[in-house]
Amino acid sequence: MAHDAHHAEGHAHAHWDTSVWPFVISFGILFLAVAFSFKFVYHNSFAAILSMGLALPMIIAGVAGWTSEAMGKGDGFSYSAMGWFILAEAMIFASFFVSYWYTRLHADVWPPAGNITLPKLMPLVMTFVLVASSLTIHYAEHLLHLGNKAGFRTWYLLTIVLGAVFLGMSIYEWSHLIHDGFTIGTNAFSTVFFSVTGLHGSHVVVGLGIFLAGLPTVMRGDVDEGFMRTAGLYWHFVDIIWFFVVSQIYYW
Amino acid sequence: MHDTLKRVLRGAAAMASGTALAASAQAADATKIANPAASWDHLWHEVIVDITIIGIIFALMTAYFVWKYRRRPGNEVGTSDKLSPASAVGWVVIPVFVFLSIDFYTAANGWVLWNEYRDVPADRLEVKLESGMYSWDYTYPNGVRTQNELIVPAGKPVMLRMTSRDTLHSHYIPDFRVKEDSMPGRVTYLWFNPTKPGEHIVTCAEYCGVMHGYMAGRIIVKAPEEYAAWMKQEETRLAAATAPAEATPAAKPAAKPVKKT
Amino acid sequence: MNLKEWIFTTDHKRVGVLYLIGSIVAFAVAGIMALLMRAELSTIGPTITGNPTQYNVWLYAHGAVMILGFQIPALTGFFANYCIPLMIGAKDVAFPRVNALSVWLFYVGIILAVLTFFIPDPPDVMWTGYPPYSTMTTGNTAMYSFTVLILGFASIIGGVNFLTTVAYMRAPGLTLNKLNIFVWCTLGAFVLQLIFVPVLGTAVTLISLDKYLGTNFFDPSKGGDVLTYQNLFWFYSHPAVYVIFLPFIGVVYEIIASHAKNMVFNYKMVVYGGIGGIVLLSGEVWVHHLYVSGMADWLRIGQMVTTLMISVPVGLMMIGLIGTLHKGSIAFTTPMMYALGVVFLFLIGGLTGVPLAVPSLTLAVSDTYYVVGHFHYVMAVAGTFAIFGGIYHWFPKVTGKMYNEFWGKVGFWITFVGVNIVFWIMMDIGVKGMPRRYYDYAHFPQFEDAHQWMTLGAGILAVGFAIAILNWILGAINGKPAGDNPWGSPSLEWSTVSPPPHGNWPTPPSVSEDWHPYGFKKA
Ligand code: HEA
Ligand code: HEA
Ligand code: CUA
Ligand SMILES: [Cu+2]
């Protein structure tokens, strides 16, 4: 632009920071949206797969590129930023729960036709596993703070395993229910059940994803304490939300 | 200024007695049938006058300052001083008090009118309405049905219990100053008080689909005798069309009781 | 010029300029939709299209793009990005890459919105997207959901970014009571975004789930409830109007203080009473959009009171604004004209919200052109004037050049006349019964003249807006050099060269004890 010339002296050595990854991720997301429309609105699976084929590599490359470009170079603000982000996330869950309460409390009959009784033991085990994983990551951070890197690594890996076990149990339960004919479309309660547990599950996946993204540095031994604290905060949040899920969906 | 002051005082009084006002309004008019449409016009007018006055005060202040403090030689930079703590607090407390009084005064008035709107007279004609893309389907207590034309007797309040078979619609009768959405899975109601014969338009006020703008009907208010004659004729037609077993008047709708808040 | 350094930039100023370009394009697109709608409504019966769906698609795109693609991005994207780091003396935002992500997600959002005109079965669900229509239509509701979701996500990460920036990156000595009003306003807006956008995101996700994946959130035959959506939607979309209002009134404060060269009147009242009060109240009034939706009566009455009470903090902000003129030195520059225009137009728009707040009065005027008139005055006109004035005000900062004063004022007066014709008439026919979202008003022939006047007015105001946009383009290309601080303002953004270099200041600034962003001194 013309003004660059105007202040030419000041700009002679100016170098403007750039990063391609935000651009790549954004357009990856565009193709994701397009893929959804192709599949579900226009019923054109071929075009849908094609745009998914564009979307996924772009998003994955974008995230990977971004992490390797920026990891450890931040100004240490990520912990408090995660706090704000969690506020927003909590509101998503709140919206789901409030919709659920609103519908349930306004209903003339509840549960709606087609309901089945949910298992009661499984969710307890799942709660146990998830709480345990919250404790392990807390302990891992503690060890890291003390400088015990080997111990940190062990407890970190244990957390990932526990998270994966939780996810496995979720999938097991889902497949059983679906097998019994209780699907997301059965009635309003099944809709709530699958969408809320699914939403929570997706957060477990994201949490695990963050841990996995940090894994290479952990294995190399040059972990970033700020990163770990931020990741841990998110994981605790996922844990706390689970209490709401269990109490509202399974035991009410 | 005098006017505002009076208003503020009235507002403060209303604030204190909002409940009492609402209650007494109903008790006094127990025998007379209310006419919310007329009260609506009255309150609307009053609120519009209020906000016009407020608007003019603020606008005149602005215009005056803009003129008085325009940039002139010798006035190159603003000269307002820092407020003293007392006046800083005063500039919060006094406006808050004034604004709140106006708000509560408006609220109390609105509440009285609301009670009038929700106080459905016991002696009424109750009609069921099912809306659909794109028609208004009315069912009278005796099973007579009409489409897009609601025929009612003058002098008798009419209450509609409304639901929808597809999307949202809103049964809007501009002349009677009422509208309420009808929607699937819920029952809503509205009522109005047609006093003299005539025709009124019903128009759909909630976006319901492609032909939303064309979803119109009429309320036809007939003199009581004419209405009775029309109803008689419809009843015989209905009886002829349906099997005798079905011709008994439909059971009273199991609708929710009309509650007042 | 290096195109790559623009597209992949992470610098807050360039990100801001990208936001500006995108949102002005969105404004032009949505404005043209408005002109098409006005043309269609100029006569009863089909005028320029015989297909009601076509009109509904224009209306959908107009509402959604104006709010989500123009005003929110212009205010919380352009102004916030450009001004906040400069106003707090920071070299950039806390997370520059996240900032770049949010601007490109914004572009993706408007690309999706503009695709509306090219895809088969475009969305026709209005900007509110109420089910069951939105889950029954053959239109592409998914497009609506994704547009809203992506723009919403962009705005959440923007919010996280700016809250962190202001919390940790202020120049030494810049205490909270020395922040520009605009910074405070934007912080308030971002807090609202963080709390409420997720609710909107949920709402629009649920309609696509219902429509495409067979869930039953809003299907009463399976135990769902249609009103759930409306509650979620307005729980966001009412606060959203303050997400627009707060930054735009913040911009107006900056303009009035700078061009009257005066201290903001009762700063703490404005910040804590005005902004704070709005943020606190805005989550408790959403039911005023559901007064005719069959909500429980106690909710309608309760929220009547909270809605009316919003006039208190807003009124305090008006007092602060008008008080800033008192004993000022008012220069009638183009930005100042727009700012004064906002004061008058916002008064009309805000005060006409007062009868709407009363549920018994709303029974007659809800969903009529009265409401359309109200929100065009308060948002479309007052908000757009603030944005235009703000662009003029910071034009010398962004480009280093001066716009043309004469054409600036001409543009202002033409639009000022135009908007009053269009939106005043709207309120009038609304009270008389003209419902909104009508492609055709065959059973209201009495309003045809009024509609013709409005179409004429829309033509007038479009000319005014086009003059302003041309003025910027020409000014950016060959305006006269403006100097670093043409308004003589002590606010920090004017303390560096125009346009500021990467990093903003050669050495990070710090402020002294007696400095204040509105402490104007004689030259
Ligand atoms: C920037 C946007 C913006 C702003 C700031 C406002 C501000 C207000 N709005 Fe508006 N509104 C919208 C945008 C906005 N609105 C939109 C987009 C819609 C329609 C959406 C749709 O359906 O598509 C809408 C619809 C809408 C409705 C729903 C109507 C309906 O659909 O039936 C209502 C009802 O209460 C309402 C009320 C108010 C009130 C009370 C305020 C108050 O905040 C106004 C406060 C301001 C003042 C009162 C003036 C200044 C104050 C003083 C001078 C002090 C003294 C005054 C008093 C004491 C009264 N608005
Ligand atoms: C910020 C928001 C905003 C803005 C700025 C506007 C601006 C305008 N609006 Fe909009 N409007 C809404 C938000 C807004 N509107 C919303 C939310 C709705 C409700 C939607 C719904 O019901 O779902 C609505 C609905 C709405 C209706 C109701 C239709 C109906 O209910 O059937 C109408 C009718 O006249 C209308 C008209 C206008 C007009 C004439 C303008 C004018 O001010 C527009 C002027 C702008 C231009 C004309 C563009 C000028 C620029 C150029 C011409 C480009 C030049 C280019 C270069 C030089 C490069 N609007
Ligand atoms: Cu029926 Cu609109
Ligand atoms: Cu609102």
What can you tell me about this protein's structure?
The complex is a heterotrimer of chains A (252), B (261) and C (523). Chain A is mostly helical and 252 residues long. In chain A, 80% of the residues lie in helices and 0% in strands. Chain A contains nine helices and no strands. In chain A, helix 7 runs antiparallel to helix 8. Chain A is globular and about 60 Å long. Chain A starts with a helix and ends with a helix. Chain B is an alpha+beta fold and 261 residues long. Chain B contains four helices and ten strands; from the N terminus they run αααββββββββββα. In chain B, the strands form two sheets. Chain B has a five-stranded mixed sheet with strand order 3-2-1-5-8, with no helix packed on it. In chain B, strands 4-10-9-6-7 form a five-stranded mixed sheet, with helices on one face. In chain B, strand 6 and strand 7 form a beta hairpin. Chain B is elongated. With 523 residues, chain C is an all-alpha fold. Chain C has one domain: Cytochrome c oxidase-like, subunit I domain (Cytochrome C Oxidase, Chain A, Up-down Bundle), CATH 1.20.210.10. In chain C, 71% of the residues are buried. The model of chain C has no long low-confidence stretch (mean pLDDT 92). Chains in contact: A-C, B-C. At the B-C interface, helix 2, helix 3, strand 7 and strand 9 of B face helix 3, helix 9, helix 10, helix 11 and helix 12 of C.
Describe the secondary structure blueprint for this structure.
The complex is a heterotrimer of chains A (252), B (261) and C (523).
Chain A: H1 2-6, H2 8-11, H3 21-41, H4 45-70, H5 78-106, H6 121-146, H7 149-179, H8 188-220, H9 225-250
Helix pairs in contact in A: 3-4, 5-8, 5-9, 6-7, 6-9, 7-8, 8-9
Chain B: H1 2-28, H2 36-68, H3 85-118, E1 125-132, E2 135-139, E3 145-147, E4 149-153, E5 158-164, E6 169-173, E7 178-182, E8 188-192, E9 198-204, E10 216-222, H4 224-241
Parallel strand pairs in B: 1-5, 4-10
Antiparallel strand pairs in B: 1-2, 2-3, 5-8, 6-7, 6-9, 9-10
Helix pairs in contact in B: 1-3, 2-3
Chain C: H1 3-7, H2 12-41, H3 52-87, H4 96-115, H5 133-136, H6 141-168, H7 181-212, H8 226-259, H9 267-281, H10 297-309, H11 311-325, H12 334-357, H13 359-365, H14 369-399, H15 405-431, H16 448-478
Helix pairs in contact in C: 2-3, 2-4, 2-16, 3-4, 3-6, 3-7, 3-8, 3-14, 4-6, 6-7, 7-8, 7-9, 8-11, 8-12, 8-14, 9-11, 12-14, 12-15, 14-15, 15-16
The structure holds heme-A (2 copies), dinuclear copper ion and copper (II) ion.
